[in-house]
Amino acid sequence: MRGSITRVSRKDGSGCILAEDGKEVCFERSEASRDGVDKLRVGHSVEFELQYGFERPCAVNIKRLHRNAGQRPGALNCP
Fold first, then answer.
1. Does the first or last residue of the chain, that is N or C, have fewer Cβ atoms within 10 Å of its Cβ?
2. What is the four-CA torsion angle of 48, 52, 58, 59, rounded to 10 degrees?
3. What is the pTM of this model?
4. Backbone dihedral angles phi then psi of residue 31, each to the nearest 5 degrees
5. Residues 29-70: pLDDT tens digits?
């Protein structure tokens, strides 16, 4: 799945992602890729997997998506 970061807490290392389907899912520090949660900022685009727990689904295997150099936000990659 893909989404964008809506909240990041530096204090406890958790945060939330607004998924493409409009649902908000939370994550823990240990689920961010090698860049870590310290590199994630509100508005960053990410790719993640959902893991279903006891209370609610959580985002795992979170990876930041990087735009191509020079690409404007929202611009399409058309030939």
1. C
2. -10
3. 0.74
4. -95, -5
5. 777 656 555 678 899 999 999 999 778 889 999 999 986 444
Structure token pair of residue 54: 């006891």
Q: What is the distance between the alpha carbons of residues 53 and 35, in angstroms, rounded to a whole number? A: 25
Indicate the length of the chain as a whole number.
79
What's the CA gap between 63 and 75, in Å, rounded? 21
Is residue 15 within 8 A of residue 40, CB to CB? The reply is yes
Rounded CA-CA distance 48/57 in Å is 12
Both tokens of 28, joined, read: 């823990």
DSSP three-state, residue 39? helix
